[in-house]
Design goal:
Structural class: alpha+beta
Strand content: 5-15%
Strand order of the largest sheet: 1-2-4-3-5-6
Largest sheet: 6 strands, mixed
Distance between the termini: 39 Å
Helix content: 25-40%
Length: 212
């Protein structure tokens, strides 16, 4: 396990080869459009913590999703504090394409190598499930996949987006069990304060399972 951030091409190459779970490696989560376009390094300050959090994300959430629905496409995952700060500054300046919150808010989320404000470890990835994306683009509601995840996986938060039903999926030591979306119905689909949170929701995703 690395004890310090990669400081050469060779050490970064070795870091990317670290296996987080059965089918996922650290390199799968280091891509960043902001980092690539602007030349900002997307490298963890605390690689050991990034590995620990990323391993839980992959083992607890991504592998079970992939086992059930087929290959997952990872759009983005880890975001370094410097990349996130730059993205937040661009967003605050009104530039489009930068959806980064503050580092305090993003720690334990996209910033895997920092604990959140309550001292909890966490990690987030933005993913697409291609097998479901086809159904979604043919008119199926994103809520069917969301409810399946709610019933089957120990997620912390889900946040769905319009294109291909892409979504952020977060693992945390302190799961909040909240689902939100920019896709109608917008806002919260469920959270622990809502009446629909508990119970079996299998009827809400039966059509999806029949077609997959």
């Amino acid at each position: 396990m690395p004890k310090r951030p990669p400081n050469s091409v060779a050490s970064l190459d070795d870091f990317g080869r670290i296996q987080l779970s059965k089918t996922f490696y650290m390199r799968d989560f280091l891509h960043s459009e902001i980092a690539n376009f602007h030349g900002v390094q997307n490298i963890p300050e605390n690689p050991d913590l990034a590995i620990q959090a990323g391993t839980q994300l992959c083992e607890q959430l991504l592998e079970p999703l992939q086992d059930r629905f087929g290959r997952i496409a990872v759009r983005s995952g880890y975001r370094s504090p410097s990349v996130n700060t730059f993205g937040n500054e661009q967003q605050q300046a009104g530039k489009s394409g930068y959806s980064c919150s503050t580092n305090d808010t993003t720690a334990g989320c996209h910033i895997w190598d920092h604990l959140d404000k309550n001292g909890h470890m966490g990690a987030t990835a933005s993913i697409v499930v291609p097998s479901f994306a086809k159904l979604y683009n043919d008119g199926m509601s994103w809520t069917q996949l969301a409810w399946w995840i709610h019933d089957h996986l120990p997620y912390c938060r889900l946040f769905f987006f319009p294109k291909n039903a892409a979504f952020n999926i977060r693992w945390s030591e302190a799961p909040e069990r909240k689902i939100q979306s920019y896709v109608p119905p917008r806002g919260y689909l469920t959270n622990p304060k809502m009446d629909n949170h508990k119970g079996d929701h299998s009827a809400k995703y039966a059509e999806m399972l029949r077609k997959l």
